Structure formats: C-alpha cells, structure tokens
Amino acid sequence: xxxxxxxxxxxxxxxxxxxxxxxxxxxxxxxxxxxxxxxxxxxxxxxxxxxxxxxxxxxxxxxxxxxxxxxxxxxxx
Length: 77
What we know:
Largest sheet: none
Helix content: 40-55%
Order of helices and strands: HHHH
Radius of gyration: 15 Å
Oligomer: single chain
Shape: elongated
Number of strands: 0
Number of helices: 4
CATH class of the domain at 18-69: Mainly Alpha
C-alpha cells in the first residue's frame, strides 16, 4: 500500500482594472450575458460582482471567461 502526501501552493495576485477589462470584453461579445454565464456555469450576479471587483476570482474561472470570450487578459500565476 502506497502512502503519499499532497503538497500544494496557493498564489494570489492583484490585477488593477481586471473587472473593467472583463466588462469591456463582455460588451464586445455579441451574446447575451445569460448565455455567457451558462457557458461558464456562473450566475449573472457573480459575473457583475467580478466586473465590479467586489469578490475574488478563482484562476480557473478567469480561464473559462477568457476561453468563452476568446480573449487573454495576460494574468500569469
């Protein structure tokens, strides 16, 4: 029987104006916000909180947003 230990690292970065960039990318997209949120599996309430930068944003969610909107915000962890 193998015994193992997981080792992980959590990193947080602060990106100035990311919410505004996400909003601009959404507004440039032809789809409704409800459609975009369905593709990301997110509520519109959470989306607006992200645009207003009133909540944190998991990196995996940012990657989904970038994929669905076809953009790259250049965030590197």
